[in-house]
Structures are given as structure tokens and as C-alpha cells.
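Quick start: read one record
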Amino acid sequence: MSPFTIITFVTGCTLIIVSVITLLHSPEKINTVYGYRTKASMRNQQTWEEANRYSSKLMLLCGGILTATGLLSFFLSFLSQTGIITGIVLTFLFSILPIPLTERHLKKLFDKEGNRKTE
């Protein structure tokens, strides 16, 4: 099994597990230990709940893509030759991607004080 397969598959499975736990047991109150914690998400309870819900779904999607990529590379030999660097880059990108996407989502829904925008 190639390092690419191991890196992408293990990271993808980890993201899936963390996202499922967060979806099933979402942090109820704003805290500094558990959940999606940024300045925008911690403005109030509404932003907190929306950020955790949205980021968990994105993390599930990114984890699924990484897991599928790892499985695909296991069966297709040309993908397994891409190496450690490509696996690390993909893992980094798909692990970080939910952050800017969630922040953009919060900016669409809430103003700078954390009040829901009206359409």
C-alpha cells in the first residue's frame, strides 16, 4: 500500500468520524474547548449553532472525498505512485477547506454583530 493511499484514507476516515461525532453531539453552548471556534462563530448562540452545523457537513464531505481518493488510489496503480507530498498536500487542503467556506457562509447569513441578515 502506498503512502498516498494511507495518508488520504486515514485522514479522510478521521474527518468523517470527527464530523459525525460533531453532528450527533453538537456543542450546545459556546465554549473554548469543543466545536468550530472562530471570532465569527462565537459572536452569539445563533452563529455558534450555524457554524458548527455547516462546518460539520463540510468536514464530512471533505472526509468522504479524501477517503474515496485513498480507496481509488489503492485500486489504480498510477495513483499510488504520486507519493507522500501529494497525499500531504491533499490532506492539508481538504482539512483546511471547511474553515474559509464556513466563514464565507457566516458572512452571508449574519452581519458583523452576529444578527441574522434579512433578505
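The chain has a mean pLDDT of 91.
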